[in-house]
Amino acid sequence: MTALNRALWIALGLAGLVAVGIGAYGAHAAGFDTVAHDRFASALHYHLVHLSAMAAALLLSGRQTSPLATASACLFLLGMLLFSGSLYASAFSGGATPTTLAPYGGVSFMLGWLALGITGARSVTRTY
């Protein structure tokens, strides 16, 4: 396991911890208006979904030496930071923080999925 993969596993654990904590706070204590609540809910949804995707990429990366799997995990982490982070900031600031980084996070998510799909397809052994 490379130092980068080790760091990504730690980042995954921390990102999961943050998702659960921020989700609980947003659900019970934040007092969002409707727009802020919608942004928060989208941020949390994408955050949680991509934790699993990042874990899958790291598991593939551990199974075989695959720079593309590691890149996929990095892209998912970047997407969580840019997309979810941008929407969280906007929700918690009452819309005062722009969501200009969210599209870049969305592209990062899409590239992460593409890299994960290619890595997964390459890991399948032919049996004929």
In short:
The protein has 128 residues and is mainly α.
| Largest beta-sheet details | none
Taking all Cα atoms into account, the compactness measure Rg is 16 Å
> What is the ordering of alpha helices and beta strands?
HHHH
**Anisotropy-based shape:** elongated
Instruction: Give the oligomer, counting copies of the same chain as homo and different chains as hetero.
Output: single chain
- Write down the overall mean pLDDT: 92
How widely separated are the two ends?
32 Å
Q: Please report which band the strand proportion falls in: under 5%, 5-15%, 15-25%, 25-35%, 35-45% or over 45%.
A: under 5%
- For the secondary structure, the number of strands is 0
Structural class: mainly alpha
Number of helices: 4
**Structural domain tally:** 1
Outline the low-pLDDT stretches.
none
Helix coverage percent of residues? over 70%
List its traits.
128 residues; elongated; mainly alpha
Characterise this structure.
The protein is mainly α and 128 residues long. The chain has one domain. It is built from four helices and no strands. α2 packs antiparallel against α3, α2 (34-63) runs parallel beside α4 and α3 packs antiparallel against α4. It is elongated.
Topology of helices and strands:
Elements: H1 3-28, H2 34-63, H3 67-92, H4 102-123
Helix pairs in contact: 1-2, 1-3, 2-3, 2-4, 3-4
